[in-house]
Amino acid sequence: MKSANDLDGLPLLKAFKAAQESSFDRTGGNNDYVRVNSEDKAVLADISGAGRITRIWITIASPDLYILRNCVLRMYWDGESAPSVESPVGDFFGVGFANYRHYTSIPLGMSSGGFYSYFPMPFSKGARIEIENQSSKKINALYYNIGYNKEDAPENDSKTGRFHARWRHERTLPGSNYTILEADGSGHYVGCNLSMQGRRPFSFWFLEGDEMIYVDGEQHPPAIHGTGTEDYFNSGWYFVNGAFAGPYHGLTIKDPLRSRISAYRFHVNDPIPFKKSIRATIEHGGINDAPGSDYSSVAYWYQTEPHKPMGSFPPAEDRLPDDGFLLKNAKYAASDILEIGMNMFEKINRLTK
Predict the structure, then answer these.
(1) Is there a contact between 162 and 29 (Cβ–Cβ < 8 Å)?
(2) How far apart are CA 315 and CA 296, in angstroms?
(3) Which of 85, 303, 279 lies closest to 186, judged by CA?
(4) pTM for this model (two decimals)
(5) What is the C-alpha to C-alpha distance for residues 171 and 21, in angstroms, rounded to an integer?
(6) Which tens digit of pLDDT belongs to each residue from 249-264?
(7) Phi, psi of 158 (to 5 degrees)
């Protein structure tokens, strides 16, 4: 059977009722936005009954340069009290470090001023989507459109996973993988975006880390064990040719001076199912020997409810990117930077002879 997203399926008649929640001006004017004061929330959608979110689009105007980290997106399905989605807005839509970068993929993107998601998000009793402004500055204008289909609940709803996404952040620890996702239940992992900042300018040694994904209580080594971070994102040689945007994988940020990388990969054609649990992790450096690197990520997955408690969400001050990096690392002279670069190219030359 063809998917509703396939062009071949477009002629088939549809049984659902299309609807949309948006910020249009209820007075009939053209102020089609809402303002969100500091520490306030805005409910973007509060839907009753069964259906499926098909599109989310937003754009934000705020004087806060870090609003993409200070503004938190949450989603709740079927009356649950704990969110199934919790992430800073910018990271959820695929770019880290509170940066705006134009890129377009099939599930998510930032496209010339707008942020979009086409991840299908089913629900059987209701859906609630909200944004919280945790910045000390207000959001002057939040425009949004939430497209959804009104549908009958599936006959076997227990086989329909709910969409989940969770942001994580930590300084890497010696000898320990960074954890992208840890979940219990039945479902499948469908991708992530990962933002990394090393400790030295022009050094991407942390990219030597392999992904290791443990399913249903696997012990080491897991069935899925990779060969390097950029390899997991379908690239090579420390993303040697720079930023790009593919349908299911891409590189949104490569900043050698700040030693920053932000990349995404979606497992649309190769989802990773689990029946009891999953733990998706990645090394930093060759053998977890890049401690103190700043790692943050959003994992995307579907699973049956209830989901494992996600724990407390970091406060705004703990989510800010390390933009004082260059001042703190001014001790590295030009000769050090040149040495780091030469070491990388020597490795490439050695392996390609």
Answers:
(1) no
(2) 14
(3) 303
(4) 0.91
(5) 38
(6) 999 999 999 999 999 9
(7) -65, -15
